[in-house]
Design brief:
By secondary structure, this protein is mainly alpha-helical. 68% of the residues lie in helices and 0% in strands.
């Protein structure tokens, strides 16, 4: 069980740090675009530093078990399946490329088309990528049941709220009226059925 929890913790380190990494990159996209040369290796190093810092902070709690039950794998696994299925549906559609999911249009707008996506899953909720991200991270946390995983989950949710607010502001500035209309019509995370 220890090895399984450790594997979950390693994967959760990558997933939980995405919002903080986004906050390091996205609000400063203009500055990153202005840098000469390749920016992706530098961004990769920054993300690794964030991952290692998060790992250093949570490693002491990796064996601190909140609950231990094989039954926790069932809801955890279902959430992981739902999150990865949502990611797959988003990246397989013609509306959302992998480049868009990774944020390349913001960093290299001359190479990538920037468009407001309001159809498909984006016609039901405004941020399906973040919903998929949080489903996966919640799945890791529930399946593992450790303080380290719960800490990473709280970390990700806290920075995630800041990230979503910053992105909403940026999208409104970039797309103007069409985004405000879309925002008024489509809920942020929970669909209106």
């Amino acid at each position: 069980m220890f090895y399984f929890r450790t594997i979950l913790w390693v994967f959760a380190l990558g997933y939980s740090t995405i919002p903080l990494f986004w906050l390091v990159v996205h609000p400063f996209a203009e500055k990153w675009r202005g840098r000469k040369g390749k920016i992706y290796p530098m961004l990769g190093i920054i993300w690794l530093v964030i991952i290692f810092a998060s790992g250093y902070a949570t490693f002491p709690f990796i064996n601190e078990v909140i609950y231990s039950s094989y039954w926790s794998f069932l809801p955890g696994g279902l959430l992981l399946f739902a999150g990865f299925s949502l990611y797959r549906k988003l990246t397989r559609s013609d509306r959302m490329s992998r480049d868009t999911v990774m944020g390349r249009p913001e960093l290299r707008p001359q190479e990538n088309e920037q468009k407001l996506v309001t159809t498909g899953l984006h016609g039901i909720i405004r941020h399906p990528i973040y919903v998929a991200h949080w489903l996966i991270l919640t799945g890791f946390t529930i399946a593992g049941g450790t303080t380290a995983l719960l800490t990473l989950w709280i970390f990700s949710m806290g920075f995630g709220v800041i990230m979503v607010r910053a992105e909403e502001k940026e999208l409104e500035a970039r797309f103007g009226g069409p985004y405000r209309e879309y925002k008024a019509r489509v809920p942020m995370f929970i669909p209106n059925f």
